[in-house]
Specification:
The protein has 400 residues and is an alpha+beta fold. The chain folds into two domains: 35-192 and 284-364, Up-down Bundle (f41 fragment of flagellin, N-terminal domain); 197-278. 54% of the residues lie in helices and 17% in strands. It is built from eight helices and 14 strands. The strands form five sheets. A five-stranded antiparallel β-sheet has the order 6-13-8-9-10. A three-stranded antiparallel β-sheet has the order 7-12-11. A two-stranded antiparallel sheet has the order 1-2. Strand 9 and strand 10 (243-248) form a beta hairpin. The radius of gyration is 41 Å and the shape is rod-shaped. The protein starts with 6 loop residues before the first helix and ends with a helix.
């Protein structure tokens, strides 16, 4: 086999060698000027793909941080609103205790009623608090309009019962603000488990002092009615209007039956009745309205005064239960704020890990790159020197 070596071929090989060395040197110069090891994806396809994934993960962490900031703002405003609601409830409790003083005159009760009306309006404003961005705190996920409004003299709730879940770290969610239906509307009456009341038509002076579940296993969760057949005797009826017990009334003594008990004072009249059963629900606004109505009743007879006292006692119990619900709501919001802090720590730890990995993949090893640059520059200069020498040579000269 014959091989043909030409001057043109040697010339072209030298050119190709110099171009390849120039390309490598230019690539190293790009690395040095940018400080990045990966100038293009072809430098290391696997590392480049991994780096893109880490960039996305860091961007996602940033988005989680924005989510956390938004929900933290809303939860902080919820805490402030609920603190103000708690203060208002405490003031209502003070005024109710004050109004329950039998020596208080009608004018004083009307003055208390006036203050309660102002508190009522303030509570409604707090329930319609916004987050500063036009979204209502207590509207659930339907937070584009005011969730509570007065209609027909009563407060109605137009939001929904949903609670938004916000992702604040990878696979870590926190709950947004509570819906107003849970904070202001569906509040348990009585002690939260059982409730009792005097019938509205009572004509005696029987005063409901206390009630409770005394034996949980004996109480079946039913409703019962104590009806006085005379001033000193009574019958107890179940929800089917069947008599389950009878007894003689003693002022201040407890009447126990079916796992529950009631304590009455004063002197009931024949036909008066008292009911006890599972706690119902009532909104805080209705509780304040009932309290205002009782204070504005201007009682004159002993029976009317007793009815007002029973109404005030009922309000005291309902307000106390509502205060407990506010504490629970604040605790729930506090737990979410604590979770946000935990998520922030997790995001920070993940971000440091991702950034360290990205640095390993992308950042240039300056000592290695500078050494390589010098070596490649020397190799290029050598190739250029050889090329210049080759230009003065000819195969004909070598053959001669």
């Amino acid at each position: 086999m014959n091989y043909r070596i030409s001057t043109g071929m040697m010339y072209q090989q030298s050119i190709n060698t110099m171009l390849a060395k120039q390309a490598k040197l230019a690539h190293t110069q790009q690395q040095l000027s940018s400080g990045q090891k990966l100038v293009t994806a072809k430098d290391d396809p696997v590392a480049a793909g991994t780096a893109v994934g880490l960039d996305r993960a860091l961007a996602e962490l940033e988005r989680f941080g924005m989510n956390a900031n938004a929900v933290q703002n809303r939860l902080g405003l919820q805490e402030s609103a609920l603190t103000s609601v708690g203060d208002a409830m405490a003031r209502i409790n003070e005024l109710t205790v004050q109004a329950n003083n039998s020596a208080l005159g009608d004018d004083s009760r009307l003055a208390i009623s006036t203050e309660l009306k102002a508190i009522y309006a303030g509570l409604l404003d707090l329930a319609n608090s916004t987050d500063g961005a036009g979204r209502y705190l207590f509207g659930g996920t339907d937070d584009g309009s005011a969730p509570l409004a007065i209609s027909g003299g009563n407060v109605i709730y137009s939001g929904n019962q949903s609670q938004r879940q916000v992702e604040v770290a990878p696979d870590m969610f926190v709950s947004d603000t509570l819906p107003g239906s849970e904070v202001f509307m569906r509040l348990r009456t009585g002690d939260g488990r059982v409730d009792a009341r005097a019938a509205a038509g009572n004509t005696g002076t029987g005063l409901l002092m206390d009630f409770s579940v005394t034996n949980a296993s004996a109480w079946n969760g039913g409703s019962y009615r104590i009806e006085f057949t005379a001033a000193d005797s009574y019958q107890i009826y179940d929800s089917n209007n069947a008599v389950i017990a009878t007894g003689a009334y003693e002022k201040g003594a407890s009447i126990a039956f079916a796992g529950v008990q009631m304590k009455l004072d004063g002197q009931p009249a024949a036909g008066d009745s008292f009911e006890i059963g599972p706690s119902g629900t009532r909104d805080i606004f209705a509780t304040v309205q009932n309290l205002i109505a009782a204070l504005e009743s201007n009682p004159t007879t002993d029976a009317e005064k007793t009815a007002m006292q029973n109404a005030l006692q009922t309000s005291l119990r309902d307000v106390a239960t509502a205060q407990g619900r506010m504490i629970d709501a604040r605790a729930s919001g506090g737990a979410q704020l604590a979770a946000i802090d935990t998520a922030a720590n997790l995001r920070e730890a993940n971000a440091i890990t991702y950034q360290d990995t990205l640095s390993t993949l992308r950042d240039l090893d300056w000592a290695e790159a500078i050494g390589r640059y010098n070596l490649e520059n020397t190799a290029l200069q050598a190739a250029q020197t050889v090329f210049m020498q080759m230009q003065s040579l000819s195969l004909f000269k070598l053959m001669g």
